[in-house]
Design goal:
This protein has 588 residues and is of the alpha+beta class. Helix content is 46%, strand content 14%. A hairpin with a 5-residue loop joins β18 and β19. It is globular.
Length: 588
């Protein structure tokens, strides 16, 4: 077993020193001082305390002790038995180039679409070295990454990507949905290592260490081969290598001369014809005044309402725009999450085809990656919905707000009658809407047994996979799953559907599961445990409660929570992330 006292003593004396070295490493990287960068990289590699801290940062991660490739050879390398001597040997062997990674165990995980995703499981002790590589690369690259890059970065979750779209893309006509085919499996080792050596760090031992991490023997039950292309999904170092590689794509879309014509849009100005059309003439004012004197203020404001709506419809019918564009108004906005990206375009479909071709050629020519033709598509947001991170992105229609209580061109308020408080009728400007499909989420829950489908409708049902657990654990588990879904999809504009998912499907699924376990009926469950399914122990202490979400509480919690669910984009990962009492019963 590990000597915890020794590690504790090392941490007290080393944490501040290591933090300063990492800070200086980042500082010299920002200055592009490669010689000083190499100096500090060498210092970190030869410092046993750095490797101790790398171990401390991953030792509690789930799956860290999963058997790697060495287990298939009968020589499993696990965390147990590690002492300070192990880290001293690392700090000597790595700078001398004598460290070699063990084989990686390959397993295939089913995808929701029916295909298989290859996953590489590294030996536990090799993960310490991979973590060290990842820490150094993160310090060297994080300051270079653009604001449009999300995924595999601290504080850059799915919700941050959605928030970025809401802020940067108020409206848009077209969306190019991009998906890189087998991104991790297609990494060109020579290109990514030469890229790191040229722009980030040239310390030869560190470069060789990255090569060794990439060119590892991969073994399974029936095969064994040297990895010549790609980086295994599941490796500690794969995410940062992915971001470094695809950062070149971010720079190309945001800064390349080939796309300059899509970034030089000129601001629009108000159309004087539209402004003159909506202005109130002297004759119209006189007529309105006579109506006020003879029929009162309510009829007076209704006259202005009808007049303004008529003018707005006239402008729409005769194609009189609100604004005039000066020159080209083509613009693009880009956001990437891991290997999925979306390019929003104000332009034509031909512009979309041109941009897609340029991106495809750049990926193939510069990064040796392929743009998936099946998953990459061009979407006209006024008629269709683009898909990104489980959300649907579309453009709301332009229409006239023509309610009877929707006019007051002068902003006046009549305090005699409450129903005579009006706002000016206006043309609603098209905006980007980010929603989620309730039916798609419920279909996935049907597959997992949490919801049933009958006669074209969805209904909550008893969740049989957790019947063997006590009632408190049933409530806690279902609450975690449905609250995770509600928090994730609560960032959408149709957040009320996410609340319904929790308050109706989650609550009644839990009640029906308890009724199934206790062989009673649902009304009896609510009568015994209350409307929020509160479980109390023998000492009258609340040990579990499902609860319900009010509008204000739900929206406040969603705004303030970027929790672990935010990086979960499919049902399998979400259920696995929350499964604490029945982890092995959902995902086979």
């Amino acid at each position: 077993m590990v000597n915890k006292d020794l590690f504790k003593n090392v941490q007290i004396g080393s944490l501040e020193t290591i933090a300063k070295e990492l800070s200086r490493l980042r500082e010299y990287s920002e200055q592009n001082n490669i010689n000083e960068v190499n100096k500090y990289v060498n210092s970190l590699l030869s410092n046993p305390e750095f490797w101790v801290l790398c171990y401390e940062s991953i030792k509690s991660n789930p799956g860290v002790n999963s058997p790697g490739g060495s287990s298939l050879n009968g020589k499993a390398k696990i965390m147990d038995g590690i002492d300070l001597e192990f880290f001293h040997k690392l700090s000597i062997n790595i700078p001398r180039g004598k460290f070699n990674f063990g084989p990686i165990r390959k397993v295939n995980i089913p995808k929701p679409q029916g295909n298989l995703r290859p996953l590489g499981i590294t030996d536990s002790r090799d993960k310490i070295v991979q973590k060290g590589i990842a820490v150094i690369l993160e310090e060297l690259s994080e300051h270079r990454f653009l604001d449009c890059s999300f995924g595999f970065r601290r504080g850059r979750s799915c919700h941050d990507a959605i928030t970025y779209i809401k802020k940067k893309v108020p409206s848009g006509m077209w969306a190019i949905e991009g998906d890189i085919s087998k991104c991790f499996d297609r990494f060109n080792h020579k290109r990514i290592v030469s890229l790191i050596q040229k722009k980030y760090v040239s310390h030869q031992v560190f470069i060789d260490l990255i090569y060794k991490a990439l060119k590892t023997r991969i073994i399974s039950i029936d095969s064994s081969f040297i990895n010549k292309i790609g980086t295994p999904q599941g490796s500690v170092v794969s995410p940062i290598l992915c971001n470094i590689y695809l950062h070149e794509l971010d720079v190309f879309i945001n800064e390349s001369e080939m796309l300059d014509k899509f970034r030089n849009a000129k601001s629009a100005t108000a159309n004087p014809k539209f402004k003159a059309l909506l202005s109130v003439s002297k004759e119209e004012n006189e007529k309105a005044e006579s109506i006020r004197k003879s029929q009162g203020k309510l009829k007076y404001w209704k006259f202005f309402h009808k007049l303004r709506v008529t003018k707005l419809k006239f402008a729409e019918r005769n194609n009189i725009p609100r604004v005039i564009f000066k020159g080209s108004n083509r613009r693009i906005a880009y956001v990437r999450y891991a290997d999925d990206f979306v390019i929003f375009l104000w332009g034509t479909k031909n512009d979309c085809l041109e941009i897609k071709k340029l991106v495809k050629n750049f990926l193939k020519g510069n990064l040796d990656l392929n743009l998936s033709e099946e998953k990459s598509r061009i979407t006209f947001l006024k008629k269709e919905k683009a898909n990104f991170l489980g959300f649907q992105i579309w453009q709301s229609p332009a229409k006239i707000l023509s309610k009877k209580s929707d006019v007051n061109p002068y902003g006046e308020i009549c305090r005699v009658k409450m129903n005579s408080k009006f706002r000016g009728a206006s043309m609603r400007i098209p905006r980007i809407r980010i929603t989620f499909s309730m039916n798609d989420v419920l279909r996935k829950l049907v597959d997992k047994g949490l919801v049933r489908y009958k006669a074209g409708k969805f209904f909550p049902t008893s969740y049989k996979s957790i019947l063997q657990y006590d009632i408190a654990n049933i409530v806690s588990y279902n609450r975690a799953v449905f609250r995770g879904l509600a928090n994730y999809y609560g960032f959408a504009h149709n957040w009320y559907d996410a609340k319904t998912l929790y308050n109706y499907f989650g609550l009644y699924c839990t009640a029906m599961t308890i009724a199934h376990k206790t062989k009673s009926k649902v009304p009896e469950v609510f009568k015994k445990y209350g409307p929020e399914l509160t479980i109390i122990d023998s000492s009258n202490k609340i040990i579990a409660s499902f609860g319900v979400l009010s509008n204000s509480k739900f929206k406040r919690n969603v705004r303030n929570s970027h929790i672990s669910f935010s990086q979960v984009t499919n049902m399998e990962q979400l259920l696995l992330a929350n499964l604490k009492v029945a982890k092995k019963h959902l995902i086979k």
